[in-house]
Amino acid sequence: MDELARALAVVGRKWALLIVQALREGPRRFTEIERSLGAANPKMVTARLRELEAAGVVSRTVYAEVPPRVEYALTDRGRELRPAIDALRRWGTRRRVR
Hints:
Elements: H1 3-11, H2 16-22, E1 28-29, H3 30-37, H4 42-54, E2 58-63, E3 69-74, H5 76-79, H6 82-94
Antiparallel strand pairs: 1-3, 2-3
């Protein structure tokens, strides 16, 4: 498997990059991530978060509170995706259909 295929296996699935984008500014709770995605199914968001966590892109922190609070944040590996996301955003802006 080449490097691009390996990267896409992690972030190429539906909603994955948008979740990374939602976490760029700092830790977020599940509902904040879900709201930022708009039409995403909660089960899909959960699945993507688990995949990103397994790949070391996202960390999950559970706080011992009542009710329990869970926050997701980018890891160092996840923050490495920022330049790629920025490049995709610039490309999308330039290629916007008028």
